[in-house]
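Let us practice reading a record.
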Amino acid sequence: MTESYPMGPLSAPHIAATGSSPTRIPGEVRSSGDNAHSSLDIGQLLDDGPWTVLQKIVVFIAALSIIMDGFDGQLIGFAVPVLIKEWGVTRGDFAPALAAGLVGMGIGSAFAGLLADRFGRRGAVIVSVMVFGLATFCIGFAANLWHIGALRFIAGLGIGGALPSSTTVAAEFTPARRRTLAITATIVCVPLGGMLAGLFAGLVLPSLGWRALFFLGGALAVLLGFILLFILPETPRFLTRRPARWTELRRLVGRMSRPVAADIIFTDLSEQRIEKREGFPALFEKGRARDTIALWCAFFLNLLAVYSAFTWLPTMLTSEGLDVAIAGSGLTAYNFGGVLGALTCAMAITRYGSRWPLLLCSLLGAATALYLTRVNIALETSILIAGLGVQGFFANAVQSTMYAVCAYVYPTSVRATGTASALAFGRLGAILSAFAGATVITVGGKDGYLLMLGVAMIGLALSLAVVGRHIPARET
């Protein structure tokens, strides 16, 4: 059903009624002759025009969906220690259920682009949020690990689809000059959501129990889904490619303080020139093979480390005798450090290029994890929690900014394919973390777990060192 939007005071019907002509806006071309008409390049309009209040609101609500993605995605990590104790199961018993959620995320990420391209970015975001919200809510009714595994798989489909869909919405409503900042800000919302989940779990788990954790967390996501249904518009670039929806696009452009005539023709010349993309084999052609393999390894190892923390960090801390609330604060600190790390590393890359900031973060992340193996958890709990925050700073700094490296390594014709393939390979590392985390905690406890994180970060540094085309330093 076509969505209607309220028009501004200088909307197209108003122009037609008064007989006045609209002010020339960026991207508009007027032809002459008997069949004169105006055309508007939507890409030029967005990139060269002002960043309006509506566009900022859209980026904000897209970021909210990613915050909720990180929030619901990490609730299971806080609930696992309680469930292990209540149901009398082992960490190994839980691994398949956790892996099912990560498999769902991988599938959701892969199909989100197809859904967004066919039915619209707006629909992809709303469906993703609703799916993981409803599935998370239903986990509160789970009676066994099979139920949790099945529901986590369904939730993973939505969680995996929300990040790329919401990031696309943010990118397509943001001028080119601010697009990198907008995308970085949305990606940072994943650890921000995890940090809020930790604070939320600290309040809910001790008083209401694990079922309430999922009931309330899922309900919040569903509520956000309904809010998005009423206020999130479709992106201008998607609407441009569907002439049947140009009436909707004219109204949207009017809401963005750019009133246009009722007979205007919309184009997107810059995107149409590059829409013919190369296929998967192009990732290994023209000198790209080394960078492709290195980036795949980097994403694999980084997501192995990050999801080992998301999934198993509270469980590791409770296995060492810490209270559930204190154990949860370890993952909260990890995510808080991740938010700061991603923003700091993004600023460093802007000035110094990507090679040395990413290598430094990887090595310092490894050093932090290895140092924490020497901390006595019983006597130095506060040092351990703070150290986990530092480790999260470095690990998430690399995770959030590697997307920018992919965007630089691959040309436009193969950029989407290159980034998606690297993320898909990284998801294998995330899936492995479900089993590896359970094994190393059972066999080696805290030290074995931290050693795994340290080794993964060292491998990450080596992989990033192999990448040849890093983002260059800014010329001064």
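A brief commentary: Residues 317 and 326 are 8 Å apart (CA to CA).
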